[in-house]
Specification:
- Helices cover 42% and strands 0% of the residues.
- It is mostly helical.
- One of its GO terms (biological process) is proton motive force-driven ATP synthesis.
- Keywords: ATP synthesis, CF(0), Hydrogen ion transport, Ion transport, Membrane, Mitochondrion, Transmembrane, Transmembrane helix, Transport.
């Protein structure tokens, strides 16, 4: 039964994953985001206390 023999396809399987994990990750990581996020006002406002009329 040839499908139980891992010799022909296992090397192809490993090389394919090596291409995906090594080459394509470098190409994806070099992608520049065109819309860089900008920081909004970092100053935190003091929250107002709640006025409970029944308390």
């Amino acid at each position: 039964m040839p499908q139980l023999n891992p010799g022909p396809w296992f090397a192809i399987f490993l090389m394919t994953w090596a291409v995906f994990l090594l080459i394509l990750t470098f190409k994806i990581s070099n992608f520049n985001n065109l819309n860089e996020p900008t920081l909004k006002n970092i100053k935190k406002n003091k929250p107002e206390s709640l006025n409970w009329p029944w308390a």
